[in-house]
Amino acid sequence: MKKLLLALAACASLGGLAACSEGAEGDGAAPTDAGEVNVYTARHYDTDLALYEDFTKTTGIKVNRIEADADALIERIAAEGEFSPADVFVTVDAGRLARAEEAGILAEVDSPVLQERIPAHLRDPKNRWFALTTRARIIIYNKAKGQPAGLATYEDLAKPEFKGRICMRSSSSVYNIALLSSIIAHDGAAKAESWAKGLVANFARPPQGNDMSNIEAVAAGECDISLVNTYYLARFASGEKRKVLDGVGIIFPNQATTGAHVNMSGAGVVKSSPNRANAVKFLEYLASDTAQQLLAGGNNEYPTAKGVAATSAVEALGSFKADTLSAAEIGKGQPQAVTIFNRAGWN
Predict the structure, then answer these.
(1) Which of 54, 67, 121, 200 has a CA positioned 20 to 30 A from the CA of residue 190?
(2) Pairwise CA distance, residues 16 & 343, whole Å
(3) Mean pLDDT along residues 246-251
(4) What dotted CATH number matches 136-261+319-344?
(5) Phi/psi at 275 (nearest 5 deg)?
């Protein structure tokens, strides 16, 4: 009870950044009252509520959650120290997983279930975090104008022949920061900065909007090319929005080299977890077929567990070779990526 009160107090102190739930109960009686698990999460999808309910129904373990920005949660857990009520940390960006790791708030987990279900390149080498879902950052182009000649890689976007043809969102987007960090890891900082400057020179307009608005801009011919996450494209797969998706072509970049950059949602057990056994059970549940379908299907992402298929809308985008760069490497280069963006004039 004391730990739960601490959790609720932590939530209250996060103010407008956080939203709390007293728990997620399944329909019908749980097997037994097996205690609780306190989840600090940066995921804000409605389908996650179904996860909590099903986990409680299956295990009898009550889920208490605190929702906030990942950086705020990391700072909170670090500040709470050994008295933190947090059991599980969940985030939607590889860089934040790396930051949590660097902050020393994640524990090593010895779980044969997780090691068997989650591929090695999608989990920390010391098993401090595990990827739950992935999404690729890919190139799109205006289909009516045809696929641009000479465009097959991220690096190609900086070619002078694409001057005035590219729409992008702000460099402050974690998706763009993670991508540039991966380019730093593969090509070095000097080449990454040259790439950023070349891409800025090719902008059709100042950075604006989000991935969805840039998909619409490319489909409408306002610009020819953009970089977007796969799950945003899948959101246009049905209904009246389908004509937008039909208006763009897709290029999975760097298929002959490093593979397409992917980012991830992931989770780990907090080092000071007061309910460690329940926390491990929760992570193992998140790797189950049922949870993977809810996690990935709710946001049109790719499941990470072996043998689980993505939604039909995601599968329809096509298969591709994914970059296997670790979250630690992606996270390590992010501060430098922000500096490079600023010097390149990418606002």
Answers:
(1) 121
(2) 33
(3) 98
(4) 3.40.190.10
(5) -130, 55
